[in-house]
Design brief:
Length: 156
């Protein structure tokens, strides 16, 4: 087994002067800092008193899931001689709020639209999505079902 470590720093920037004295007295803004990379300015989702112009944790989880699947799918296509020239995903995830207990994601759908230059038809593109799903680090870390609704167009 090979272990990779990821590090970053999160700095809360929402203190309006009185800290968290009251629930509505502070902003939910924070900055995610990475070594040698641009910072990410984030907040809570607007339904949780966050800044709607900034990324929120729920969007970041969904984007991580979608992008990890995409990268593994492209890898599998390259390994199997499938030439992908376009890939667009419009993923969606569903957050269930449980009163008094917080919440959790209960499902996600990835909806990739893929354009392939050619395909010898001996390889099922959906099988490559399945391989990508099995290998995706983020999907393997989620405890909710993830459905792949893929569409493919073959350009000759």
């Amino acid at each position: 087994m090979k272990l990779h470590q990821y590090t970053l720093k999160i700095e809360w920037t929402g203190n309006n002067g009185n800290g968290t004295e009251k629930y509505d007295s502070y902003r939910r803004d924070y900055t995610i800092k990475f070594e040698n990379k641009a910072p990410v300015y984030a907040s809570a989702d607007s339904i949780f008193r966050g800044d709607p112009s900034k990324l929120n944790p729920e969007e970041m989880l969904l984007s991580a899931l979608s992008s990890c699947h995409m990268l593994w799918f492209l890898h599998e296509c390259a390994d199997h001689g499938i030439n992908v020239v376009e890939y667009i995903d419009s993923p969606e995830a569903y957050l269930e709020i449980i009163p008094g207990k917080g919440g959790k994601f209960n499902s996600a759908n990835l909806n990739p639209e893929v354009v392939i230059l050619s395909n010898d038809n001996s390889i099922n593109i959906d099988d490559l999505h399945e391989l990508a799903s099995q290998k995706c680090f983020i999907a393997n870390s989620c405890n909710f079902p993830i459905k792949i609704n893929s569409k493919h167009q073959i350009k000759l």
